Amino acid sequence: MAENNFQPSAPQAPQQDFIVQPAGPEVTDPQGFKNSKTLGIVGTVFGALGLFLLPLVFGIVALVCGILTKYHKGLRIASIVLGAVDIVFWLVALFVVGALAK
Question: Are the C-beta atoms of 50 and 82 separated by less than 8 Å?
């Protein structure tokens, strides 16, 4: 009698009729930060928040994010300017409060 050498194959994944593409281009700068646009947005948001809340903390975060943003010039400038304004505002407020306390 003939020997049956049938072996079941592994289950196969269903075929897709469409191609899945990423949502947007992924930018990696030489330092290895992916999507430096995100850093620019975070810096701009924290810089704007620093005008109303915790100007020193949010200003420093905005400055760092702005400096690390490489390929998005507008977001970089906005983050750095807002961060600097936050820090200057905090320093002026500190001197004013110190002068009024005397």
Answer: yes
Continuous H helices in 1-102: 36-49, 55-68, 73-101
Q: Which residues of 10-38 are buried (b: 16+ CB within 10 A; e: fewer)?
A: eeeeeeeeeeeeeeeeeeeeeeeeebbbe
Tell me how far apart the alpha carbons of residues 56 and 34 are, in angstroms, rounded to a whole number. 27
Q: What is the pLDDT of residues 42-64, one digit of tens each?
A: 999 999 999 999 989 999 999 99
Tallying the residues shown for the chain, one arrives at 102
pTM of this prediction?
A: 0.63
